[in-house]
Design brief:
Elements: H1 12-31, H2 35-48, E1 52-53, H3 54-60, E2 69-74, E3 78-83, E4 93-99, E5 104-115, E6 118-126, E7 139-146, E8 152-157, E9 195-198, H4 214-227, E10 237-243, E11 248-250, E12 256-259, H5 262-277, E13 284-290, H6 307-318, H7 324-332, E14 335-339, E15 342-343, E16 365-368, E17 372-373, H8 384-396, E18 401-403, E19 413-414, H9 418-422, E20 427-432, E21 434-435, E22 443-446, H10 447-463
Parallel strand pairs: 1-2, 4-13, 4-14, 14-20, 15-21, 16-18
Antiparallel strand pairs: 2-3, 3-13, 5-6, 5-10, 6-9, 7-8, 7-10, 11-12, 12-22, 16-20, 17-19
Length: 464
Amino acid sequence: MERKNAWESYDTETYIQVFAFAEQYRKFISENKTERECTAAAVELAKEAGYRDLYGVVEQGIALKPGDRVYAVNMNKSIALFEIGTEPIENGLNILGAHIDSPRLDIKQDPLYEDTGLAFLNTHYYGGIKKYQWTARPMALHGVVALKDGQTVRICIGEDETDPIVGISDLLIHLASKQMQKSGTDVVAGEDLNVLVGSIPAAAEEEEKKEKRLVADNILSILHTKYGIEEEDFLSAEIEVVPAGPARDYGIDKSMIAGYGQDDRVCAYPSLIAQLRVRNPRRTSCTLLVDKEEIGSVGATGMHSRFFENTLAELMNAAGQYSEIALRRALRHSHMLSSDVSAAYDPNYPDVMEKQNSCYFGKGVVFNKYTGARGKSGSNDANAEFLGMLRRILDEGGVAFQTAELGKVDAGGGGTIAYIMAGYDMSVVDSGVAVQNMHAPMEVTSKADIYEALKCYCTFLENA
């Protein structure tokens, strides 16, 4: 079953729309590289589109009605947006769910040290990465420092043209003969991903030089001057080390985008825009942008938390539609696209791909009936009936789509949030955008696929 290349069906007007939307997306992922930044940006876009804070609505005792638009934020790291439909909520919602965390390096709680006149920050890598890919490249620091007085200070170093960058050193090839004999897993150890941040010592008296970390002290002085923070404030900080610089057009024809964090912001951004564009839906529409997927969807801001269930209960109560049985029915009757990326076929690495069941750049949004590993372990495995309904509405909506598996059966695998939401008995399938270099500091996607994902998500919210 050969799927057509979407580029071949585009007229001039559609080409313009594809590139225009891709540029909006490129700017979004360039400016928002952490889950906190994505959540804050989503709130601003939602407010511009007429969304109100659900907690504020509840506090004021406002009754919600069809057409009302609200959002709820969870610990500044995830967000749920809803537009109430004309049907009772217990009939089910149409839900788009994506994650806004990405593989990265996290600064440890006691990170700063000095060695041989150089100051470093210790890190702990987050998510599945090839550690050697994170050395010898420009890096930036993004995050927050929560002070004891309740103030939260935002940190961003390395993105402005006048900013310095930081980075992790690599061993020069001239001395790397033993290193090059190691397996890829061991070329760089996790404890060696230390970020070099300075080399100028602070001024000190001669007798003090033997006792002080002069370079580290100078770094602390700079941070205190710019941000008002002390070394102990690292104890309540969340600072991420991410690739510096903006996402870029990729390919001589500019048909692709290269940038950090496209897993899974390449699904999150089209989901968010679809939620904002679709008006007056029949079934209540919802977009979930969540944290912690890369480490198992755990914790208070991951999909395993009660955030979605509790927020839906608040929504139904504010709409005068809540009861415990109505909430359970709403969850069971819901339809969901678990919007996450899939592995694009790469001709450079054909041994792990099965061509007939791989996804390809330019052939549209990707549906993975199941993910998991080997014997579908950890998979959702969507129902055929749900897929049949989706095929119908996507064909009627003129959406280019393809199906895929995540590589050959015994080659590996991966998971998404789909199985968690399926635990409510709702119909769920994974759908997203094909990505090359997944989990690398620079990932690559097709502009056509991003545009088709937007069309898919709009069609789903309107018609599922």
